[in-house]
Amino acid sequence: MKTRTVMIFGFMVLFLIFGISSYLQWEYSQEIKNVSEYHKRMSIPSISTLNDIKINFQMIHMLSIEMIQTDVTDERYFELQEGYQIDRVAIEKDLKRYEDLTFAKNSRGELLASAVMQNQMQDYIFIMKQILQNNDAVIKQYENKEILGINALPLLASIEEEFHNTIESDTSMEIRGMEKVQNQIILIEENMANIFFTSAILAIATAVGVIILTSKFVSIPISRLILMTKNISKGNFKEMPINSKNSDVNEIAIALNKMSKDLEIYKSKIIMQEKLSSIGELASRLAHDIKNPLTVIKVTLDVIKTKNKNLSEEELEKFQRVNEAMYRITHQIDNVLDFIKGKPLQFEKFSIEKIIDSVIEDIPKTDKIKILVVSENLEIDCDFEAMKVVLINLVVNAMQAIEGEGEIKVSSKIREDKAIIEIQDSGPGIPQEKLEKIFEPLYTTKQEGTGLGLASCKSLIEQHHGTISVKNNPTRFIIEIPRKIEPISE
Ligand SMILES: Nc1ncnc2c1ncn2[C@@H]1O[C@H](COP(=O)(O)OP(=O)(O)OP(=O)(O)O)[C@@H](O)[C@H]1O
Ligand SMILES: [Mg+2]
Question: What is the C-alpha separation between 296 and 272, in angstroms, rounded?
Fold first, then answer.
């Protein structure tokens, strides 16, 4: 998984939490809007209307009492009657207002009062109208002299009581409704606060989760990567597997491990070069020291030869052999020096068969070891002398490995665009644990060996862009070089 994926996942969870919480808050805000609309358009006007009805009825009641105590023919009675009519109209208007409230609607055009409440309100209106009519009837009876004022008084009192009870229960019904609304608002507010706190806690938990996950996912693997780089800088090139769930880190770890491996190879190459350069200095001195006595021997032999004109055929041949041997020594010293000093190779087309023939010619012959050459006649781009140095080293090693009688097989073939040369011997082979070391400079198991032979071979073959490897049973060194060497553009 990528670091980006973790971050995106974290942000998505956060967005989801905020989304759900905002949606729920919006829902509750709508509910609050409904409830406050109910409060504003229904509860408050209802209670104030009922209050007006109550005040107006009290006026009617007071006027009624005064009326039944006044003579109908009296001027005052007329005034009271007028007042009664005014309050009667006012209370009718109040009742009409209250009746209209049963059909009050919210901003979406929905009825605010429930069906039950509507019925209850209408019942109250009906009762109140009845009571008013009863009051009217008592006044009428008094005016028509059907009852005396003294008898009308208890009737008015009971009407007033009934009205009082009705308006009280109606008001308390409205107050209950209002309380219900307030409780609803409190509940909604509590819910909103809960949602706010829950979403805040969830958001914090998610953020903490993302931080922990990121640190586990990024910081910890990165500290492993830092450790890797520290190890590399200390020269510890051991592969460090990092099986992180973070694919970014894995990619870096793979790249670092590859870099570490490459550095290890470069390091061993540098060490080898350092070794070779110190060997080079030693070899130059040795070559100088060897060449001087060789020149003395050669000159002395020439002097002996010129002074002794009557030398036999056999003696002349011996002179010739000593000369050849001295030439080979000089030539080989020069070869090693060229290699160490890094003499640039001269690539030309040469027949492998010819190179092998020349090698066989140069090596000392023995009856005990048979050398078999199986070579396809093919041409490759190579440095003739360098290839000879390689093959001589390998054949001489093979001869030294064979104790007593044995056989060496030198073969060459073409595989696709590569030339493959194999030197196989019937010797005892190379112990498994030494296989890797034999190409290192100065590695030798021989008393008089320099341990430079195979190191030179490897270096020369690599300069031919090829490889050299070794296998046991039977022991064989395999050289693979490209047939054509592309010129390096400068
Ligand atoms: N054909 C072979 N069979 C068995 N061991 C071998 C063979 N070729 C090389 N070796 C081993 O590899 C070692 C290194 O060989 P290399 O040619 O580099 O040095 P050397 O032969 O010991 O010394 P020099 O080449 O200077 O005589 C040898 O000492 C020997 O132990
Ligand atoms: Mg050797």
Answer: 35
